[in-house]
């Protein structure tokens, strides 16, 4: 794989708290400064409601940081009369991403209560619902593609696209011209998949990658204790900084085609290290120590 310069970080440790996401301008400014201090020069994009895309880009540029692909999440099992609003929201989000100068966006299914309660085991599986969710994902992906942006589907533990069967069913059903693959190594691993195998099998449609690590023992403990998603991630610390867990990143990099030149977004949802500063710094050190195919931050 050719050297990639598209390396970014998701500032989740800076903007995600016990009450959810804080995307206020004050918090986002602090996040940009923090990730720049750690050494990163690109950041997953989430524009505060109070800012235009141009204002957001200016704040990033003040710290030598550029935008990286953001994330559009949705409930894809909503009533049919809510679909027009869902499609319009996806198109509006795509417009902002395009204003930021991006060509890809991560697309994901929001978490469902049933799977939040029992994560990573394919809880409450229903074949007809999966078919419906895939149909809706195709609809939204088509709308985003029509706007000129490439949607890259991001499987997520706790959502209706969680297990390997569900990921493969979605990718095998929706045409690659409509939907690319945005694998998240951590969510795939925790959900029971081999990330490298999935990346290899769908390598020709990988458009962007989330690099996330998992403690195998913590995931097994959370499953044995029947922990919900929050307990598994914030108490058992399923997530960890890349290189500190059990995901085989070398195999993931090797599974990507030699021509891959898309984004790598380093992501730690909940820091395993004592502080967000230490977590972000460790993530930067790790990515800079990777072989050429992981790029340069």
Shape: globular
* Spatial gap, N to C terminus: 16 Å
Number of extended strands: 13
Oligomer type: single chain
Supply the number of structural domains.
Answer: 1
CATH architectural grouping = Alpha-Beta Barrel
Strand content: 5-15%
Helix content: 40-55%
Instruction: Provide the CATH superfamily.
Output: Divalent-metal-dependent TIM barrel enzymes
Q: What is the radius of gyration computed over CA atoms, rounded to a whole number of angstroms?
A: 18 Å
Number of helices: 13
| Element string (H = helix, E = strand) | EHEEHEHEEHEHHEHEHHEEHHEHEH
- Structural category is alpha/beta
CATH fold-level topology:
TIM Barrel
The CATH class, by name, is: Alpha Beta
Largest sheet: 4 strands, parallel
Physical arrangement of strands within the biggest beta sheet: 6-7-8-9
Low-confidence stretches: none
Mean pLDDT: 95
Can you lay out the helices and strands and say which pair or pack?
Layout: E1 7-9, H1 12-15, E2 16-17, E3 20-21, H2 25-38, E4 42-44, H3 53-62, E5 66-68, E6 71-74, H4 83-99, E7 104-109, H5 113-117, H6 127-146, E8 150-153, H7 164-173, E9 180-181, H8 185-190, H9 195-201, E10 208-211, E11 213-214, H10 216-224, H11 229-234, E12 239-240, H12 249-255, E13 263-266, H13 276-288
Parallel strand pairs: 1-13, 4-5, 6-7, 7-8, 8-9, 10-13
Antiparallel strand pairs: 2-3, 11-12
């Amino acid at each position: 794989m050719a050297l990639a310069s598209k390396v970014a970080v998701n500032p989740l440790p800076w903007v995600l708290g016990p009450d959810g996401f804080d995307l206020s301008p004050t918090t986002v400014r602090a996040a940009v400064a923090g990730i720049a201090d750690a050494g990163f020069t690109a950041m997953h994009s989430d524009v505060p409601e109070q800012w235009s895309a141009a204002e957001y880009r200016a704040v990033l540029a003040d710290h030598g940081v550029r935008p990286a692909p953001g994330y559009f999440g949705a409930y894809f099992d909503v009533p049919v009369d809510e679909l027009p609003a869902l499609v319009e929201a996806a198109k509006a989000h795509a417009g902002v991403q395009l204003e930021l100068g991006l060509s890809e966006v991560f697309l994901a299914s929001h978490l469902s209560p049933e799977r939040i309660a029992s994560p990573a085991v394919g809880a409450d599986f229903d074949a007809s619902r999966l078919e419906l969710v895939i149909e809706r994902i195709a609809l939204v992906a088509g709308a985003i593609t029509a706007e000129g942006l490439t949607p890259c589907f991001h499987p997520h533990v706790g959502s209706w696209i969680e297990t390997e069967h569900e990921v493969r069913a979605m990718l095998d059903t929706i045409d690659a011209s409509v939907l690319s693959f945005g694998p998240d190594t951590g969510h795939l691993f925790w959900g029971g998949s081999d990330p490298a195998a999935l990346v290899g099998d769908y390598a020709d449609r990988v458009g962007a990658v989330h690099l996330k690590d998992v403690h195998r023992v913590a995931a097994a403990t959370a499953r044995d204790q029947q922990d919900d998603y929050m307990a598994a991630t914030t108490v058992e610390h399923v997530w960890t900084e890349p290189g500190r867990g059990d995901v085989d990143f070398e195999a993931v990099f090797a599974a990507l085609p030699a021509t891959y030149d898309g984004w790598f977004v380093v992501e730690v949802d909940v820091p395993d290290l004592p502080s967000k500063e230490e977590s972000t710094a460790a993530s930067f050190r790790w990515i800079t120590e990777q072989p050429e195919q992981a790029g340069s931050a």
